Amino acid sequence: MKRIGVIGTGIMGSGIVANYLKKGYQVFIWNRTKKNATKLVKQGAVFEKTPREVAKKSDVVFEVTGNDESSRAVWLGESGILAGAQANAVLITCATLSVKWVDELAMCCAKKRYTFFDMPMTGSRVGAESGKLTFLVGGDEEKLKGLKTDLMAVSERQIRFGEAGSGTRYKLLLNMLAAIHIVGLGEALKIAEKSGMDIKKVGDALAEKPGGITTNLAWRDYQKAPNPINFSVEWITKDLTYAKKFGQGISLPLLDDVLVEYKMAIKKGLTAEDWTVVNRD
Questions:
Q1: What's the start-to-end Cα distance of the chain, in Å?
Q2: I need a surface site. Which of 6, 29, 44, 94 has the fewest CB within 10 A?
């Protein structure tokens, strides 16, 4: 079995670690706040002092941080992943990052002849905990095939969109459209409520048609706020900001309006709330 390294043990990273441990893999981890990884250490994960030390001991390294700044910090520098990775290591970022940074990171890995993939995920907390994530992949097709067994330990699907960087590009489009759907359902329900319609009947019907995963999620969480949250206002705002940069030079009025909604939510102090809070606030 390959030795696994995971950098960042938040909601998604913790799920990946736990499932690899259940499958009998040896897992090395690092997290900026060590106490947040205590549970995983008790389950058998080995906590290392730096990302570099994790990379030294791992055949496959997953980075699961929150944004460009935290990602850059764990990849570069004397204590970073690239300073410790083995020559034949597979290096993966699972974070949702900007296209600019992922392209830069891919070039850094290529110069050092590392195998690199960008693999942002879908499936949220439930998918991470159950081992049923979907990886949205950018990277070499043949090398991905060789990694499939190890990826199946924590996911149910891997969808390749092209070379390194293409997984990130798709993930930004996906999150943009999901946020538009969530805000759109909220506006439809506001109209229904103001006109005196039965909100329950309207919501149930909209969840059926047009339906879709995001509409169903938004309707479910409109009725009862999720606890724990699935995805925060902070992170969707970050992703929408990256999507806006990705689409620079293109008129994107829907994206602009939805981004304003989430920035307003942050101003109201809802940063750590679930991203569906914009429909309940």
A1: 48
A2: 44
E strands in 12-56: 27-30, 46-47
Would the pTM count as exceeding 0.85? yes
Domain ranges of the chain: 4-164, 170-279
The amino acid that residue 204 corresponds to is: D
CATH of 4-164, one of 3.60.15.10, 3.30.70.100, 3.20.20.140, 3.40.50.720: 3.40.50.720
DSSP-assigned states of every residue in 142-199:
HHHHHHHHHHTTTEEEEEEEESTTHHHHHHHHHHHHHHHHHHHHHHHHHHHHHTT--H
CATH superfamily of 170-279: N-(1-d-carboxylethyl)-l-norvaline Dehydrogenase; domain 2 (1.10.1040.10)
